[in-house]
Amino acid sequence: MSEVNWWESSPEMTIYYETEWGFPEHNDQKLFEILSLESMQAGLSWNIVFKKRANFRQAFYNFEIKKVAAMTSTDLDRLMGNPGLIRHRQKLAAIINNAQMIQKFQQAGQSFDHFVWQSVNFQVINHHPQTMAEVPTVIFEAKQLAKQLKKAGFKFVGPTTCYSFMQAAGLVCDRIKFP
User: Fold this and answer.
1) Is the separation of the CB atoms in 153 and 66 below 8 Å?
2) In CATH, what number is assigned to the domain containing residue 104?
3) Alpha carbon distance 82, 110 (integer Å)
4) Is the pLDDT of residue 141 over 70?
5) What is the reported pTM?
6) Amino acid 178: pLDDT
């Protein structure tokens, strides 16, 4: 019996896979959302995070960078009381922190899009996998991106999280072709 792929676990996951996951993204706000949700996934399944995505969008102003960057410790306390979120204080604080870091890029005239896409020389890395078993768990470029993000002040951006981000945002194509 063959194993079910993660995107086949529900109709919603299949739609996400067919319409969002792995397609090249260049919008700073959308990239911020993807990074935030992938950071929340650390230690959890994507299914848990995905089911709470609408709640995260509502709690974080649809990931509008300027609004999230302006959030305070009072907002963080409010988020911790929201049962619709994954209530991990450091991860929630990291989302606010990371919005502030993206805002610094933007204020310096650099987009977050440019910052992350330079990690793959502005070209999608395509692994052409035929099965999920062929998909690596991390790649050199994800390790490098994690180092660069941490150096820039980002939080909860280890190599595995960065690789998941790169896959979801389409910097890396690990999409399995449907028969």
Assistant:
1) no
2) 1.10.340.30
3) 33
4) yes
5) 0.94
6) 57
Instruction: Please identify which of the residues 7, 38, 117, 163 carries the catalytic annotation.
Output: 38
> In this model, does residue 129 exceed pLDDT 70?
yes
Once rounded to an integer, what is the mean pLDDT over residues 124-152? 94
**Structural domain that includes position 39:** 6-173
Asked if the structure places residue 155 within a domain, the reply is yes
> CA–CA distance from 61 to each of 65, 66, 84, 115 (Å)?
9, 9, 14, 23
Query: Is residue 8 annotated as part of the catalytic site, yes or no?
Result: no
CA distance 137 to 49: 19
Q: Is the dihedral of CA 87, 100, 142, 59 positive or negative?
A: positive
Domain assignment present for 119: yes
> Is-catalytic flag, 17?
no
Number of domains making up the chain: 1
Whether 46 is catalytic is yes
27-62 tens-digit pLDDT: 999 999 999 999 999 889 899 999 999 999 999 999
From 7, 46, 117, 163, active-site residue: 46
Q: One of 6, 16, 17, 61 is an active-site residue; which one?
A: 16
